[in-house]
Amino acid sequence: xxxxxxxxxxxxxxxxxxxxxxxxxxxxxxxxxxxxxxxxxxxxxxxxxxxxxxxxxxxxxxxxxxxxxxxxxxxxxxxxxxxxxxxxxxxxxxxxxxxxxxxxxxxxxxxxxxxxxxxxxxxxxxxxxxxxxxxxxxxxxxxxxxxxxxxxxxxxxxxxxxxxxxxxxxxxxxxxxxxxxxxxxxxxxxxxxxxxxxxxxxxxxxxxxxxxxxxxxxxxxxxxxxxxxxxxxxxxxxxxxxxxxxxxxxxxxxxxxxxxxxxxxxxxxxxxxxxxxxxxxxxxxxxxxxxxxxxxxxxxxxxxxxxxxxxxxxxxxxxxxxxxxxxxxxxxxxxxxxxxxxxxxxxxxxxxxxxxxxxxxxxxxxxxxxxxxxxxxxxxxxxxxxxxxxxxxxxxxxxxxxxxxxxxxxxxxxxxxxxxx
Length: 421
Hints:
Radius of gyration: 32 Å
Helix content: 55-70%
CATH class of the largest domain: Alpha Beta
Shape: elongated
CATH topology of the largest domain: Beta Polymerase, domain 2
Mean pLDDT: 89
Structural class: alpha/beta
CATH architecture of the largest domain: 2-Layer Sandwich
Strand order of the largest sheet: 7-6-5-8-9-10
CATH superfamily of the largest domain: Glutamyl-tRNA reductase, N-terminal domain
Low-confidence stretches: none
């Protein structure tokens, strides 16, 4: 039995290709049925996200997965195989296990170490399980991938450092205030980045998000997306003393908040600290504002420096994570080799015993009548010969099971003794 994975991701294919390959949840039952109808495929799983589409199958040894899975994807998604093939990658056996473990651990993601992919893989597992597409050898490999991802996250802390501008802003706000529970946020401008920052802050526990924009319609749309309260643009300075965190992302070509204005805001706040995030280009907040006490001002360059430093830390932790993956892959492969060895040894012993009995039956007529003692001696003689023949082969099988490349040697022994027949 072997694991085969064929798919594409954000590195191998552009979004216009990935979206054509994506599977809707409603299409999965029929896709599983189609895969399981292919001779040689015993289990299957389909992982479909915005950044990757992968088909994984458990297949019989000797089964050529690549053309079959390429054809399955092309037919199922109604595209030409010749057009699709250059975007696909293929993994088998140990490399497929390593790829699956790295995907689960977030080491193959667009955002290194992100945790969402593990949840997506668990959803894919549940869908395959519900349709009876998993339930044997491959299920054990997939569930081991979950355990490996948990180990990577707990031992390396790879997901701890934020690596997006919006998440970095939230972490810096936590450093200023400790807890963000009950804090109030003002968002000036309706850009995508400020919206993401507002959503991150909402998840972090802020109580109120005020939204203002020169265009009221855009302010209303953004307030709906992040659960905010709209403030008229010409009133935002009056509301500012009520705010703990300001996200500035307007398209104004001048400063919308100057040092003297911020000084007045702090006086009304009785010098309680404020966290200002200026992610506009050109900047919305006068840099001199940062000279005031109890003001913490970060612009887009500051945030990107934080992100780059965190990315460097994640890369270092990813190296440690890859060592864990390599260790776990070798451990699993050794266990699989040992498990596959037992039926091979039994088949070898049964094959040799059948040969012994057939030869005994063929020559028994020539031997004439034998006493019970002679029968016992003949049995002992022939069994002894068979055991000596089997001993060397079984000892070599066990040695090969301990090697990472032992599968090929075991397969040679199976063929030499015609065990597959």
